[in-house]
Design brief:
single chain, 210 residues, mainly alpha, 6 helices
């Protein structure tokens, strides 16, 4: 005995429920995209701010010269592993065009950051030490903001669009304020915004039953 055929209304309802479940799961995955990088920026740029101090007034805390960089690169490595793992797990659940978009988007990130740093290094040698850090930091934040804007346009995701625009504004404000201040602004307003976005966007997935 076979099940009766679904009515058009029931079919549409099941499709809508399936799409809603996928959307909730994807928003849950955003916690693993945003939160690690938000913590990385908050901690690492916070250490840079403490070590550099505001303007020319000297450091707030005299840290070992290499400590902020070591912390930054360590946390970046951890965040990259978490992000790639989350992306691969999501790719096994979602196929088709969305999967291809995600793969192309990820490759674009790697190409952009893999090529921009050697270019910046070519010009950084002509700058004072504090402005070298400002150059690398500000261009990295600007590139991240642009990629978030692009991601928002690709997936029609307002959280990415708003976060990308916010990061560009925060980055500009930090650059205008100068070395030291830039690290502080990026740590609090940049990393903090990513942490808040991670918690807000993933909230529906954390509230839904497993």
């Amino acid at each position: 005995m076979t099940d009766p055929e679904l009515t058009p209304e029931e079919s549409l309802r099941l499709i809508a429920q399936g799409r809603a479940a996928v959307a909730v799961r994807q928003r849950g995955a955003m916690l693993l995209y945003y939160l690690p990088w938000g913590l990385t920026w908050f901690i690492a740029f916070g250490l840079f701010a403490l070590d550099q101090g505001p303007g020319s007034d000297g450091p707030w805390i005299d840290l070992p010269d290499t400590l902020p960089l070591i912390v930054l690169f360590t946390l970046m490595a951890v965040s990259i592993v978490i992000t790639i793992g989350a992306g691969l797990r999501e790719a096994t659940r979602v196929g088709g065009e969305s999967n291809r978009r995600g793969a192309m988007y990820g490759v674009s990130w790697m190409l952009a950051f893999g090529t921009i740093f050697p270019i910046l290094g070519r010009f950084a040698e002509y700058l004072p030490d504090d402005h070298r850090g400002l150059l690398f930091g500000s261009v990295s934040i600007a590139l991240t903001g642009v990629f978030f804007l692009a991601g928002g346009a690709i997936w029609l995701d307002w959280s990415m669009l708003v976060l990308g625009g916010w990061l560009l504004v925060v980055n500009l404000a930090g650059v205008l304020a100068g070395p030291g201040w830039h690290s502080l602004v990026v740590s609090v307003a940049g990393g903090g915004a990513m942490i808040v976005t991670a918690l807000v966007v993933s909230a529906p997935a954390r509230r839904s039953p497993s």
